[in-house]
Amino acid sequence: MYELKAGSSEEKFAELIWKYEPITSGKLAFRAAELWGWSKTTSFTVLRRLCNKGLFQNNKGSVTSLISREECSSRQSERFVEENFSGSLPAFVAAFTSRKKLSSEEIAELRRMVDAFEEEDT
């Protein structure tokens, strides 16, 4: 199973791949050098780790995603709620809103989402 930690080199590199895919590994290494001063070796090491985690594939030098950015974010969010709130979304929302007020737009969006999920169940 894969894990991308916020602010990590792997996360930055993954974002670069998702932005430019399909992209050659050489162009990725060039962009990483340009953006962050990475060596080719560093880029290829991070790419190999991301491929081993099942996020991307490097097929004859052409890098593409196996999982979309959205799917990755969804899975990481699910894992976070599971690990920190025993899988309880209401517990997560309660903790989140205890320190941050929701705007009326956010509340309306949450209501629309709940209504849509209820409609799916019927």
In words, what does this structure look like?
It contains six helices and three strands, in the order αβααββααα. It has 122 residues and is mostly helical. The chain folds into two domains: 9-69, Orthogonal Bundle (Arc Repressor Mutant, subunit A), CATH 1.10.10; 88-122. The model has no long low-confidence stretch (mean pLDDT 92).
Uncertain segments are: none
Strand content: 5-15%
According to CATH, the fold-level topology of the largest domain is Arc Repressor Mutant, subunit A
Name the average pLDDT.
Answer: 92
Total helical segments: 6
Order of the strands making up the biggest sheet: 1-3-2
The CATH architecture of the largest domain comes to Orthogonal Bundle
The span between the termini is 33 Å
State the secondary-structure class: mainly alpha
How many individual β-strands?
3
Number of domains: 2
CATH-assigned homologous superfamily of the largest domain = Winged helix-like DNA-binding domain superfamily/Winged helix DNA-binding domain
Q: Name the overall outline.
A: elongated
Taken in chain order, the helices and strands follow as HEHHEEHHH
Helical proportion, percent range = 55-70%
Rg, Å, rounded? 19 Å
- Main beta-sheet strand count, sense and barrel state: 3 strands, antiparallel
